[in-house]
Amino acid sequence: MARSIDPAPKAVRGFVPARSDEERYLMRHIEDLARTAESRGIPRYSAFLSDREQDLARAALNRAAVPENVYHFEGGWPGAERRLLCLEPEGSWPDSPLCCVRLTCRVQAGAALPAHKDYLGSLMGLEIRREALGDIVLPSDAPGTAYVFALEPAAQLICQELLQAGRVEVTTRLLPLEELPEFPQAERTLQTATVSSLRLDAVLAAMLHCSRSMAAELITAGRVEINHLPVESVHAPVYEGDVFTVRGKGRFGLTALPGKSRKDRAIIEFFQY
User: Fold this and answer.
1) Which residues on adjacent β-strands are paired with residue 245?
2) N or C: which terminus of the chain has fewer CB atoms within 10 Å of its end residue's CB?
3) How many CA atoms lie within 13 A of 245 on its CB side?
4) Please, which residues have CB within 8 angstroms of residue 217's CB and are 6 or more apart in sequence?
5) How far apart are CA 140 and CA 248, in angstroms?
6) How far apart are CA 261 and CA 264, in angstroms?
7) pLDDT tens, 215-249?
8) Comparing C-alpha atoms, which of 121, 123, 117, 118 is closest to residue 101?
9) Cα–chain-centroid distance for residue 51?
């Protein structure tokens, strides 16, 4: 597909401010952690944060003028979605509460193995707070094995109390992070399309392979989120790096906006999670 050589500057999405008391509280909490780490020269760590909460944390740190070299986000493995904010001032001794528990199923050959929802349901049944749990990884090359990332107290509770996932018995082992295997990365097929404009209904129609009117119906029905925030305007602009969640249809990542085709249509590159 031919592309325009017009070197138009890339548009980026600006920070979306806190939209609730809970989000404002989170930002204040992050600033408090940063101030404590700086004033006392000791490491400080948040609970597990979602994608949206990580964006809010970055905004709070920028507002507090915290240098980027003193913090990072860590989820235990390279593809982690839920991650801790780690504030580690220069000269401090890291003391991360991040742990991993390996769950191994005791199941007869051919029996159904627990799915992600079964593991999560069993963990929540222990009355563990969701923010104390990170990703639950089910490697495709190790059926019947799951790796649960959690804060240390939650990890200890899992090892002591978790006996089954769904209806399947499991054994647990607290696993040092340096002993983690390399998890196979999910294969994602990059797709390319052209759209008449970079507004939500046009881009969503291309991703879902449907008409713009059908995409507009999904948007106005409140079934669409951009970067984990609901959006109901079909005219909403889209930007490189946006993540689109369509209830009942899936989740999509907009990876690039390479330019325009010879017919002056915008080119988009995306994948489905």
Assistant:
1) 225, 251
2) N
3) 11
4) none
5) 24
6) 5
7) 999 999 999 999 888 999 999 999 999 999 999 99
8) 123
9) 4
Neighbours of 176 (CB within 10 A): 8
Report d(CA 248, CA 133) in Å as an integer.
25
Closest CA to 136 of 149, 153, 122, 152: 149
Predicted structure pTM score: 0.79
Tokens linked to 1: 């597909």
Distance CA(182)–CA(197), nearest Å, equals: 40
Contact criterion met (CB below 8 Å) for 188 and 175: no
pLDDT in tens, 88-98: 999 999 999 99
Report the chain's C-alpha Rg in angstroms: 22
**Three-state DSSP state, 217:** helix
Residue 18 DSSP code: P
